[in-house]
Design brief:
Length: 717
């Protein structure tokens, strides 16, 4: 078979002060030398580079005990290093290198390093890497001097662990342990996440209530803004309509125009006044002429009557006054005096009384004159002529005055019509003026009312902005309010403001805090979900690995037991050897119950041929060594390790058993690379390469490589 362990390089490790190299090219490599030469240091170097942590196993107390401490001729060194180089052409190691060099260094200050192909790594990385080729922390393939029977006296649980490691189950053990650790960490993280979520949850619920309160307030505020937009828009349209209706500008312009028209009419002219006075004077003059005409006609009638009476010669009572004349005189006096009673002017009253007095005096004088003239026909005739002439003159004057009066009267009538029309127009204009003034006063009052309403509208808008939290958009066009619509809309807005006040105010910082808390809660929730899923997966992985380990261990233990029994019979020329699994004792088992050990594990049962010896406790030291060798060979036969290091495990064998041991070693080398520290000639005879280790007076170990022929000569000597 090809050798997986290609070489070992030492520098400064214990007695190997100078660089030393062991090439393991043969299936069996033997290292020989006198006691104290340092050959066992080779085994310890292999053990150390593979991750050994116990200084007791390395025959030291601290790291600097592994470094060459100097001698009389050589100074002590500052560090020790060992490299184990493995062949990886068959990809035993899961790395992409043809060779895998595992190195370890230690310095005087205690600092240590692990290396893989000259790259610094962790011990854990080294252990996991070696687990892929069946090497673990127990390093069961390395059996040092005096430790051959270690596998016999370890606890059943540790023995089971060694067997599991030899079967290559350690990699699964590590994976399971890693899964269990991760599961434990996951469960711890789950508890922490649950605790953190439980801690955050009450605060989140409180914030959620505040946010819901804020959202309700936001909804109400949005409804208020929408309602207010319609309300303010319609109210604004209503105010614009009322302002247009209440505009007094037209009325003021109309009033100015009316006043200008009234100014054109002005006061009655002096001409009109003169015409009126002239007409009155004409009427007075006509009245006097008519009175004179009446007197003349009456006097003419008297004269003509007297002439007729005289002409007819009739007699009459001259002293009698005609009734008609008296009645006429009285009626005229009554008319004049009635006019005086109606007048408020004292001078006019005096004038009327004087006229009446003069008329009565004239009547009496006339009667006196008539009495004197009665009987005088010529006088009456002359008188009649005078009266006729006077009547003609009066008629002429009366006609002229009547014409003048008619002319003036027509003109006065025309002017009166004009004045009447003017008065009517003035009255209409004045009425319209009063209407305009009333309209202007109403417009001024309406303007004041509108200003108050517009101020109220602005206050309402600002109040709504305060409640809504922002400007309220107004519609470009909206229908004006009619009847009681505005009051109903105002009540609806007041209800929304009341609801908003009930909802209360929430600082917007609460929203950010709620989002942060919600994000944390979701994070914890997701973490818990992921952790639960991860825990479930890890439990599944752990269960699968446990089942695989148990299954592979059960099958492998059966094969090891069979090989153990075969090698044991070869060693002792008979007898019996077996491995049995101890089941763990139930916690309910009684103290005196014959039950397996509580920790479980693997128990070794042996029986020597031709002796009544059963159990490991009754074996001698040599028998224990042979039993241990048989078990180690059985382990190697069933699950061949990459190499097997034996440190003088054949020291206690007699000649016959040495031959059997050598034969088994040869057989085992077909599947396992063997490195042995030996003094046994049978063992050396079967080695392909011998390394001799010597030590001079300076205490430094040196190597001497021997070929197979030379080894046979040494073995014969």
């Amino acid at each position: 078979m090809s050798s997986i362990f290609k070489r070992l390089e030492l520098s400064g490790f214990k007695s190997f002060a100078k660089a030393a190299r062991f090439d393991f090219e043969s299936p069996i490599v033997a290292i020989v030398g006198p006691n104290g030469s340092g050959k066992s240091n080779v085994v310890e170097a292999i053990r150390w580079v593979l991750g050994e942590q116990s200084f007791k196993s390395l025959r030291g107390h601290r790291g600097e005990d592994l470094i060459f401490n100097g001698s009389t001729s050589s100074p002590r060194l500052g560090k020790a290093s060992v490299s184990a180089i493995f062949d990886n052409t068959s990809k035993h190691f899961p790395v992409d290198f043809r060779e895998v060099a595992i190195g370890r260094r230690v310095y005087r200050d205690g600092k240590g390093e692990y290396l893989v192909n000259d790259s610094e790594v962790r011990l854990k990385d080294v252990i996991e890497l070696l687990a892929h080729v069946g090497l673990g922390i127990s390093q069961h393939p390395i059996i040092s001097q005096g430790e051959a029977d270690r596998i016999l006296y370890v606890s059943p649980k540790d023995r089971q662990s060694m067997i599991e490691e030899s079967l290559g189950l350690k990699v699964y053990q590590y994976k399971r342990e890693e899964a269990e650790k991760k599961l434990q960490q996951t469960e711890d993280n789950m508890r922490k996440a649950q605790a953190l979520r439980a801690e955050v949850r009450p605060h989140l619920d409180h914030l959620k209530r505040l946010v819901e309160k804020y959202e309700r307030a936001t909804e109400i505020r949005a409804a208020l803004a929408s309602k207010a937009s319609e309300y303010l828009s319609r109210w604004r349209t209503t105010l614009e309509r009322d302002r247009a209706a209440a505009d007094g500008g037209e009325k003021e312009a109309e009033l100015k125009a009316i006043n200008k028209k009234l100014e054109k009419f002005g006061t009655p002219s002096s001409a009109e006044s003169d015409d009126t006075q002239a007409l009155l004077a004409l009427e007075a003059e006509l009245k006097k002429l008519r009175e004179k005409r009446v007197e003349c006609e009456r006097e003419l009638g008297r004269a003509e009557g007297a002439l007729e009476s005289m002409a007819s010669g009739g007699n009459r009572d001259d002293d009698a006054i005609p009734r008609e004349e008296v009645e006429e005189l009285l009626m005229r006096a009554e008319d004049d005096l009635s006019g005086a009673l109606e007048s408020d002017s004292i001078p006019e009253i005096h004038e009327i009384v004087q006229i009446v007095t003069d008329r009565l005096g004239a009547f009496l004088m006339q009667r006196t004159a008539e009495e004197k003239m009665r009987g005088d026909t010529k006088a009456y005739a002359l008188r009649a002529v005078e009266w006729k002439r006077a009547l003609a003159d009066i008629a002429k004057k009366e006609t002229a005055l009547s014409d003048e009066w008619e002319r003036r009267w027509s003109r006065a009538q025309e002017m009166e019509a004009e004045r009447r029309n003017a008065r009517q127009e003035i009255a209409a204009l004045e009425a319209r003026s009063r209407e305009c003034e009333d309209a202007i006063r109403r417009a001024a009052f309406a303007e004041e009312v509108l200003k108050n309403r517009e101020a109220e509208w602005e206050r309402c808008r600002q109040d709504i902005v305060h409640w809504a939290g922002s400007e309220v958009a107004l519609a470009a066009s909206a229908a004006p309010f009619i009847d009681e619509e505005r009051e109903a809309a105002q009540k609806a807005i007041d209800r929304l403001k009341f609801r908003l006040e009930e909802a209360g105010g929430v600082d917007t910082a609460v929203l950010r805090e709620y989002d942060d808390a919600k994000t944390r809660d979701r994070f914890f929730e997701k973490e818990l979900t992921d952790l639960v899923s991860s825990a479930k997966q890890l439990r599944g992985v752990s269960k699968e690995l446990a089942e695989k380990i148990e299954s592979d261990f059960s099958r492998g233990l059966g094969k090891i037991t069979s090989e153990f029994d075969r090698f044991f019979q070869l060693m002792f020329g008979g007898g019996r050897a077996a491995l049995t699994v101890l089941r763990e004792r139930s916690p309910l088992a009684s103290e005196d119950e014959d039950a397996p050990r509580p920790e479980g594990g693997v128990h070794i049962d042996v029986a020597l041929p031709r002796k009544k010896i059963r159990g490991l406790e009754m074996l001698s030291g040599g028998e224990r060594s042979l039993t241990a060798v048989a078990l180690l060979f059985a382990l190697s036969a069933v699950s061949p390790p990459p190499f097997l290091v034996l440190d003088e495990t054949d020291a206690a064998l007699d000649e016959a058993n040495s031959v059997r041991y050598g034969d088994m070693l040869k057989e085992l080398s077909r599947s396992t690379q063997i490195i042995t520290i030996t003094h046994n000639r049978q063992t050396m005879r079967r080695a392909g390469v011998l390394y001799g280790v010597t030590a001079g007076s300076d205490g430094i170990s040196r190597l001497l490589s021997l070929k197979l022929a030379q080894a046979e000569e040494m073995a014969e000597s």
